[in-house]
Write a structure and sequence with these properties.
The structure holds two protein chains of two kinds. Chain A contains eight helices and eight strands, in the order βαβαβαβαββααβαβα. By secondary structure, chain A is an alpha/beta fold. Chain A starts with 11 loop residues before the first strand and ends in a 5-residue tail after the last helix. Chain B has a three-stranded mixed β-sheet with strand order 2-1-6, covered by helices on one side. The chains are: A alpha/beta, B alpha+beta. The interface between A and B is large, with 42 and 44 residues. β1 of chain A pairs antiparallel with β6 of chain B.
Chain lengths: 234, 115
């Protein structure tokens, strides 16, 4: 600061106090308003790669068949349509967003995806975020609910290692509980970490392969869908 | 990992406020980052040097104020700072704790020069 040249006035401090991702948050608010207008309940589904996001979506679609119209946005880092193809094969509209290598979806990417979906014909939109436990936590998309899938083989230390993502979610799915007898996973230690970060978090231990526990999740989700149809906030 | 997107946002916010204040140059940026927001200072600095080139922010110094994570024990009322990883209350060992600080992630102020 001593290097101020004579042609310049003294450096001046300008208060800013603006959230760094405020631009993203503004677009997210517009996305939420658009979804509300169409009475679509949107879920931002986050997890590490391989936790079972797509299997969970397919199981949810199957369980709600004939009772809710579901659309899916698939976030992928590469232009592969494996996940989107599975959803379309299940008879639901799906849009794939290729992030071009980015580690997360952001609100602008979702806005583009929303414009490609028949929102008037949907009750539920599931947004499958990029498989990652770090970056998606920072970017609000405009969904009504954030759902995190943790899977048993990932290990019981994940809340301790990735606190930010556990802080911000509304629902936790513990997937692959059918593997508990075969994997070293201390459920008490895991749930203690979750409890410290997000007390009272709504949690459903499930297995997408055996179907165990899914009924509880579906019943909870149907309650949220009904509230959305009736115009209540999620 | 998402530091490029974050750095672009920092630049946009700084340029907006600098222009509003009639600045000819931005010399310093003061960022406040809580320990629970997963941001790496070095990566931001790396991208900053690249993307601020040819703007009035070129060469501006980034200052990171790191805010530790503060916890409140709901069982015994003890407040404590997270030193490394998440731990139960050091006094009563209860896991009934609440994060009270550590998620800050904002641009606090900039220092500018005027023509």
């Amino acid at each position: 600061m001593s290097s101020t040249s004579p042609t310049h006035s003294t450096p001046q401090r300008v208060p800013v106090i603006e959230k760094i991702l405020s631009a993203n948050d503004q677009v997210a608010a517009l996305n939420r308003a658009l979804l509300d207008e169409h009475r679509v309940l949107a879920i931002n589904l986050m997890a590490s790669p391989g936790a079972g996001k797509t299997s969970f979506i397919l199981a949810t679609i199957q369980a709600l068949a004939g009772r809710a119209r579901i659309g899916v946005v698939e976030g992928d880092t590469a232009p592969v349509t494996i996940d989107a193809d599975k959803v379309i094969a299940a008879g639901m509209p799906a849009v794939q967003i290729n992030t071009g290598g980015d580690c997360h979806l952001d609100a602008v990417m979702l806005r583009d995806g929303l414009h490609q979906l028949p929102l008037d014909d949907l009750d539920l939109l599931v947004i499958e975020n990029v498989g990652n436990l770090v970056c998606p936590a920072a970017f609000d998309l405009g969904a009504h609910l954030s759902v995190l899938i943790a899977s048993v083989p990932e290990g019981d230390d994940k809340p301790y290692k990735y606190p930010a993502i556990y802080r911000g979610v509304d629902v936790l799915i513990i997937n692959k509980i059918d593997l508990l007898p075969y994997v070293r996973f201390n459920m008490d230690y895991f749930r203690q970490g979750v409890e410290m970060l997000n007390p009272g978090l709504v949690t459903f231990p499930v297995s997408c392969s055996s179907g165990e526990g899914l009924a509880g999740w579906i019943a909870w989700l149907e309650g949220k869908l009904k509230a959305k149809r009736d115009g209540e906030p999620a | 990992m998402h530091e490029l997107a974050v750095t672009e946002s920092i630049l946009n916010i700084a340029l907006k406020h600098a222009q509003q204040a009639g600045a000819s140059r931005v010399t310093d940026l003061h960022l406040v980052i809580g320990r629970l927001s997963s941001i790496i200072d070095d990566s931001i600095q790396f991208y900053w040097d690249m993307i601020s080139e040819n703007t009035i922010c070129q060469g501006a110094r980034l200052h990171f104020q790191r805010v530790p994570a503060q916890m409140l024990c709901l069982n015994c009322g003890h407040t404590f700072t997270l030193e490394s990883e998440l731990t139960p209350c050091p006094t009563c060992k209860s896991a009934q704790v609440k994060v009270t600080s550590g998620e800050q992630f904002y641009l606090d102020s900039i220092e500018i020069e005027k023509p």
